[in-house]
From TrEMBL:
BP-aspect Gene Ontology terms: translation
Organism name: [Clostridium] hylemonae DSM 15053
UniProt similarity note: Belongs to the universal ribosomal protein uL10 family.
This protein's encoding gene: rplJ
Compositional bias of kind Low complexity: 166-180
Function summary: Forms part of the ribosomal stalk, playing a central role in the interaction of the ribosome with GTP-bound translation factors.
Keywords: Ribonucleoprotein, Ribosomal protein, RNA-binding, rRNA-binding
Acidic residues bias spans: 181-191
One GO CC term, this protein: large ribosomal subunit
Entry-linked InterPro entries: Ribosomal_uL10, Ribosomal_uL10-like_sf, Ribosomal_uL10_bac, Ribosomal_uL10_bac_type, Ribosomal_uL10_CS_bac
Subunit text: Part of the ribosomal stalk of the 50S ribosomal subunit. The N-terminus interacts with L11 and the large rRNA to form the base of the stalk. The C-terminus forms an elongated spine to which L12 dimers bind in a sequential fashion forming a multimeric L10(L12)X complex.
UniProt name for this protein: Large ribosomal subunit protein uL10
Keyword match Repressor: no
Amino acid sequence: MAKVELKQPIVETIADEVKDAASVVLVDYRGLTVAQDTELRKQLRDAGIIYKVYKNTMMKRAFEGTEYAALEEHLAGPSAIAISKEDATAPARILCKFAKDAKALELKAGVIEGSVYDTAGLTELSKIPSREELLSKLLGSLQSPITNFARVIKQIAEQGGEVAAEEAPASEEAPAAAEAPAEETAEATEE
């Protein structure tokens, strides 16, 4: 078997992984300890991100003719690839956070939703909260006015109940007083 035939399945695997990806980020992992690499892989796996090390030539072949072809110029030296199918900013967010503690990890470049970003761009994108965080903030913002409105209505109802209770005896006395003159007038007409 020729070497090309042996490498073709790997190129096809890479192409399949990046085909429907929301984001692809390249990193230089040289200098990471085994413990750091294991922790990084665990964090990425927990977030649903594919993280693998491939030869640069195989990634170049897989990227040919796709929107990821712009990453070819960054494929120098050892490279690992982080691929996310759902959350576009998750790889950048996790890798940048991890790189703060593990100085050996270097972000090279990435393609996020069709746009190519360098290291500075990925760092800025990493500051964007996750989709779940943004949705929870939106939900909190929507619930806040409704909650405040319900609280005010409840206070008004409680105060209104107290006012009605205080006014009720006064209004009960008024009909009795109103009936008294009517009785007196009835007695006066009989005499």
